[in-house]
Amino acid sequence: GAVVSQHPSWVICKSGTSVKIECRSLDFQATTMFWYRQFPKQSLMLMATSNEGSKATYEQGVEKDKFLINHASLTLSTLTVTSAHPEDSSFYICSAPSIVSGSWTDTQYFGPGTRLTVL
Amino acid sequence: SQKIEQNSEALNIQEGKTATLTCNYTNYSPAYLQWYRQDPGRGPVFLLLIRENEKEKRKERLKVTFDTTLKQSLFHITASQPADSATYLCALERSGYSTLTFGKGTMLLVSP
Q1: Chain B nearest-CA residue for A41
Q2: Interchain CB contact of B49 with A (< 8 Å)
Q3: CA-to-CA distance for A8 and A66, rounded, in angstroms?
Q4: pLDDT recorded at residue A53
Q5: Dihedral angle sign, alpha carbons of residues B96, A4, A62, A51
Q6: Number of alpha carbons in the 13 Å side-chain half-sphere of residue A39
Q7: Residue bearing the bigger pLDDT, B94 or A29
Q8: CB of B102 within 8 Å of any CB in chain A?
């Protein structure tokens, strides 16, 4: 199956600093990627939909100026957490829809996640 | 509002038995429902998708049922193994969007 990678797998930063998380589709092109956040024992919450070559679509309640998304190529989307605070500490996961025979399918391939800890 | 409910209590079963996990939803009319497996500290892995016009779907030791009248899906793992221990997430298409909404998941623990 298709592979989605994330980097870094974990990061610890000081409050007030910015952190960039990369999401790459390794063996397929992804014009759309999704960014989720997951708190302990909670469900995955969709934060935004990243679209290659255009602005991201953010979910209600997600600050677009705080969580900057850049989808600069068909295989890379980045999420930058700006001015991070302890409450931003979470597990951030990206995903990309799978494509079969040139058509979107309804399933998603997920990255391994990035654990962010803000001190 | 749309809700997805999965049993929050861990399910403990013995190796070799059949595990059955439940996903209930309200205020939804999803075209399909998906099940994912998530191991600690990892991203979810897709397992099965079942569409609204399908009653049952199988893949190796996995079986999923979908009852749109009861608004419920059952996920079965037959001949369970300790390696099946993980959290299993139910996900539905979000109405009007090409995105997924996930339940909190149910942790399955299979003891030898």
Answers
A1: B104
A2: yes
A3: 19
A4: 86
A5: negative
A6: 6
A7: A29
A8: yes
CA-CA distance, B64 to B72, in Å (whole number)?
11
Average pLDDT, chain A: 91
Residues of B in contact with A109 (CB under 8 A): 46
Q: Is the pLDDT of residue A90 over 90?
A: yes
Distances (CA, A) of B63 to A38, A116, B30: 27, 35, 19
Say if B42 is an interface residue toward chain A (CB within 8 Å).
yes
C-alpha A65/C-alpha B56 separation (Å) is 44
B2 pLDDT tier (thresholds 50, 70, 90): confident
The pLDDT of residue A55 is above 80 = yes
- DSSP secondary structure code for residue A119 in this structure: -
Secondary structure of B44-106 as H, E, C letters: CEEEEEEECCCCEEEECCEEEEEECCCCEEEEEECCCCHHHCEEEEEEEECCCCCCEEECCCE
CA angle A84, A88, A94 (to 5 degrees): 105
Strand partners, A114: A92
Count of residues making up chain A:
119
Q: A50 - beta bridge partners?
A: A33
Q: Are A100 and A1 in contact (CB under 8 A)?
A: no
Q: What is the pLDDT of residues A60-76, one digit of tens each?
A: 999 999 999 999 898 99
